[in-house]
Amino acid sequence: MNKQQVFPPRRDYNSWVADQTLEDFALRFTAKKARRWSFARVANTALGAVSFLALEAIGGAIMVQYGFTNTAIAVLAVSFIIFLTGLPIAFYAARYGVD
Fold it and tell me: Backbone phi, then psi, for 3, in 5-degree steps?
């Protein structure tokens, strides 16, 4: 009986498949189009990260300048104003089916 010859690329693939930590069952059945990110998606993600870092820096600067208590009160007050502003917008958007 002849010994079967396994080529290195196939050997690597078989070792990857056998490793359960590398197996991603859900992604295997996902369409390739859904796995590719568009430029807009990457740019939006980067913009979100930059926005987060900028807000952290602004919050830190305000905290250092005015102290924790004043910063916390100001953040709560502005959050409450934004919430009150958003209530009628959300109400009418839900009422008239605006997306």
Answer: -80, 135
